[in-house]
Amino acid sequence: MGALVSRALRPIKSFNIENRAHRVISKEKPQVAPSYPSTVEDLQRVQEAVPDIDKKLESKDSHLDERLKNVYVTSMGTPEDDITRKKQDENPNRPLPQDRNALQDFDFGFKEPERVPYGRTTLRQAIEYITSHQMNPEEATAAKIAYEYKLKESDVENILKHFKTYEVYVPETKDSKAVIAGPTTNRRKLMEQSVGKIEAKKDLNLDKQNVKTAS
Predict the structure, then answer these.
(1) What is the pLDDT of residues 158-207, one digit of tens each?
(2) What is d(CA 159, CA 33) in angstroms, rounded to the nearest whole number?
(3) Which helix H or strand E contains 190, and what residues bound it?
(4) Rounded to an integer, what distance in angstroms lies between the CA atom of residue 112 and that of residue 116?
(5) Interhelix angle 123-135/153-162, nearest 10 degrees
(6) What is 5-58 written as a DSSP string?
(7) Would the pTM of this model clear 0.85, i.e. be above it?
């Protein structure tokens, strides 16, 4: 569509084009903006000192070329990367990491605190006593849990009232029976089981392919 429109408008655009071009060329050229007074004084001073400055700027100066051949830079110091690495090695307060292995995969997705203050609980501890209370509420009472984990009994009662743990049900397949993973099962164990099943399926597929090629 655009090509058709441009082709249709081309005769209109080229109509009387020579006369229009001469009309534009014959117009007076716009005046150049005046220079700053200090710039005018500098130009006048240079022209008085060197009248043929324009020719010198346009022509090539062989003496300057010879001088440029004698100019070179020699580095005598140590590279900046080596200096930074040396400072880091010498600073005992900021040692470089020596272990470049991958980070450990934690059970709950984050690192658990090594020390738990009184009145606080971790996710692992909460799952433990919530699960114990669900399995045997007469034995794992709020008073016993508060005494064992150093918590307020009122806080434990609220936790047991408002929070419950779920169970994961893995349905039965051709190769494995149904599995019920309780809340005490770690995420890592579940991942290991699933990865093992996937690898076993890959081995079976490879064996089937080998049998077909052999036959």
Answers:
(1) 999 999 887 777 788 888 887 766 655 544 455 455 444 444 444 555 55
(2) 81
(3) helix 187-214
(4) 9
(5) 70
(6) HHHHHHHHHTTTHHHHHHHHHTSPPPPPPPPPHHHHHHHHHHHHH-TTHHHHHH
(7) no
**Residue 160: count of CB within 10 angstroms of its CB:** 19
* Span 142-164, pLDDT tens digits: 999 999 999 999 999 999 999 98
Residue type, 35: S
The residues facing 168 across adjacent strands are: 181
Dihedral, 107, 112, 115, 118 alpha carbons, nearest 10: -90
Question: Using alpha carbons only, what angle is made at residue 112 by residues 108 and 116, rounded to the nearest 5 degrees?
Answer: 135
> From CA 185, how far away is CA 128, in angstroms rounded?
10
Q: Rounded distance, CA 45 to CA 58, Å? A: 19
